[in-house]
Amino acid sequence: MTGLILEGGGMRGLFTAGVLDAFLDENISTDRTYGVSAGACNMISYFTGQRGRSRAINVGYINDKRYMSWENLLRTGSLFGEKMMFDTIPNELLPFDYDKYAEVKPDAWAVCTSILSGHPVYIRVPYDLKKEYQPVLASMSLPLVSKPVPYNGDLLLDGGIADPIPAERAIKDGCDKLIIVLTRQLGYVKEPESTLKLAKVLYKKYPSLIRALEKRHIVYNAELSYVRQLEEEGKAVVIRPPHPVDISRTEKDTHKLNALYQEGYTEAMDYMDKIRALLGKTAPEKAE
Predict the structure, then answer these.
(1) 160-196 as b/e: b if 16+ CB within 10 A
(2) Which of 61, 88, 168, 207 is surrounded by the fewest CB atoms within 10 Å?
(3) Distance CA 222, CA 247 (A)
(4) What is the DSSP letter of 88?
(5) Structure confidence by residue, pLDDT tens digits, 170-221
(6) Are strands 108-114 and 120-124 parallel, antiparallel or unpaired?
(7) Tens-digit pLDDT profile for residues 96-138
(8) How far apart are CA 46 and CA 286, in angstroms?
């Protein structure tokens, strides 16, 4: 079974959006997909074949206060506007193809973190996203600037806390060939959380979450090592930015965002032969 893993990273997800549009152009697909945080958001439009939609949303509405703003945080407890992202945009501004998603029935998993246990939670994304989008919302709900999302008796936040690059999970689930899309460059090493003191205050009722945040950098760096191992063994193709990404999780510079999208697209196209070799696929015939 083949698998696709999409790392998060807030607005660094524009790199992933470029990669996925390249996959659409070249008819690249896998049996199962794991989306973490922004990766979970990006994979939704990929499955409906709505090329360019993720880019249009993140670039076109990033400076709209309804989409992301400190006003949202003060008013609702979340930096990103839930209504804007899961109602106004998909139902009015840039319509989401709900019917196509339900028809495709993708084997797509949103990776979240339980604030009650501190453990990762893997949720197959429901086919009816109009009625049940909470797993995607939970996966992208960043700590400190988002409200925990209630779901099936649990309280969930960003999957990047407990399992930012779920390659080991994918292997355990039966995936023997992986395409892994990262949003950090080769050689990146994650440092301990700089906001840990604040987290200990805000989440004092959730000691398991605090422990997960304390070891987040250890987990991340160990997962990067595992990804490198899979890459060296020929079990994975890893697409990552070719140099450090000068973009924050909440970047609003549209020129930077567009450039990162294009970089993702270009990198994916450069890796296309390796991807096809891994998946055992041939290049599509070009129209004359």
Answers:
(1) bbbbbbbbebbbeeebebbbbbbbbeeeeeeeebeee
(2) 207
(3) 24
(4) I
(5) 999 999 999 999 999 999 999 999 999 999 999 999 999 999 999 999 999 9
(6) antiparallel
(7) 999 999 999 999 999 999 999 999 999 999 999 999 999 999 9
(8) 22
- pLDDT at 288 > cutoff 50: no
Q: What are phi and psi of 208, to 5 degrees?
A: -65, -35
Cα angle at 152 between 150 and 158, to 5 degrees?
Answer: 50
Q: What is the DSSP string of 169-182?
A: HHHHTT--EEEEE-
Tell me the C-alpha distance between 220 and 216, whole Å.
6
Amino acid at 248: S
Q: Are 58 and 13 in contact (CB under 8 A)?
A: yes
pTM, two decimals, is 0.95
Give helix 207-214 / helix 216-232 axis angle, nearest 10°. Answer: 50
Tokens encoding 220: 């991340």
What is the rounded distance in angstroms from the CA atom of residue 65 to the CA atom of residue 186? Answer: 34
* Residues in Cβ contact with 252 at an 8 Å cutoff, skipping those fewer than 6 apart: 62, 63, 68
**Which residues are CB-neighbours of 72 under 8 A, at least 6 positions away?**
65, 66, 78, 79, 80, 81
